[in-house]
Fold:
Amino acid sequence: MTKKIFAINAGSSSLKFQLLAMPEEIIIAKGIFEKIGETDAIFKLKSENLDKKEILAIPNHKFAVEKLLSELLENQIIQSMDEIDGVGHRVAHGGEIFKDSVVIDQKVEAYISDLSELAPSHNPVNLVGVRAFQNALPEVGNVAVFDTAYHQTLSPEYYLYPLPMKYYEQYKIRKYGFHGTSHKFIASEVERILGEAGKDVTHLKIVSCHLGNGASICAIKDGKSLNTSMGFTPLAGLMMGSRSGDIDPMILPFLLKKEQLDATDLSHLLNQESGLLAVSGISNDLRDVEAASLKGDERASLAIQLFVNRISQTIAGYISDLGGIDVLVFTAGIGENSATIREKVVERLACFGLVIDPEANDNGEQFIHSLLSKTMIAVLPTNEEIMIARDTMRLLK
Ligand code: ADP
Structure:
């Protein structure tokens, strides 16, 4: 029987939602609240017969959820609140406690709240979203789907930092990895697509490149995360839109002294003022940087080259970790849309036998490797909402 499940992503001033029919995985409605807390907040709602946008005062997330439910009723997208069977929430940090998604009860809520120390700008607002739904739909079960859970299969050799062990023991400083829901979805898509093509999918070595504003790569062996590029926080690993990714850590104490910066300044510098934005001097949005590069802007071209180098170096490392590679996947805003980045990255992996088919790449085909390539190369749209809905279905059964 069809169930109706919400997939929710609550940010500090936003709430993204999809209502899905499961197990068919069909979107019934989707939309977003933006600028929550302000008098000119934005509400967008789309369904088969509706595409509306409203500017209104939305004081808080609780109000947003009530507005959402009454809009669904008013527009006859649902006939009654009883039709909602479950709510899945994206939660940023599950620490070492949560190795899978989980039904939210008071104990789970307390754990998520305790983990706020590791994700201060995410876990508390994720809980605000949970409470808003608990309040509006008290009879309906809520499930937490963690960005970190998929990477809990990493072994100590990949998750430990070479720092005094007491910091791991006292503060749980280790690599957690993020974008887990996306990488897990990509692994399941690769298995599905190759399985349908009659290929053996029991022992696949996949490298999944989630390249969006935030970007991470995951080495996947037998469906499990073996290694991933984000770390203790989502700043680590690749260079990103406005995040530095890995840098020599001694730069921080150096800047601390030279520029009299404090911890908050450094965090802002690394998260908001670095990456593509800093090197190009133009934008954190790759579209702007690519456009400038095409017009001959040298710093824009340099930014692209730095970005590409980090990606191809990380993939190369993961080919070593995996002991080979069967499928390389590009996903998320940049991975799905930038043929240039894909081409430049694969070009640098020629020594591993990866060869792109330029025409397939430019035409946005699902598989973009040439017949000469030793490895399959795919472009697959990610879908974190479907994963959230799948886990919510599975756990609320
Ligand atoms: P987020 O991490 O915010 O979810 P997305 O996955 O939406 O990010 O990706 C955003 C990035 O994708 C931006 O850098 C944007 O420039 C890039 N992008 C989107 N469309 C294109 C395109 N057609 N060509 C190049 N880059 C694109």
Remarks:
- Residues 212-214, 241, 285-287, 290, 332-334, 337-338 surround adenosine-5'-diphosphate (CB under 6 Å).
- The chain is about 40% helix and 20% strand.
- The two ends are 12 Å apart (CA to CA).
- The chain has a mean pLDDT of 97.
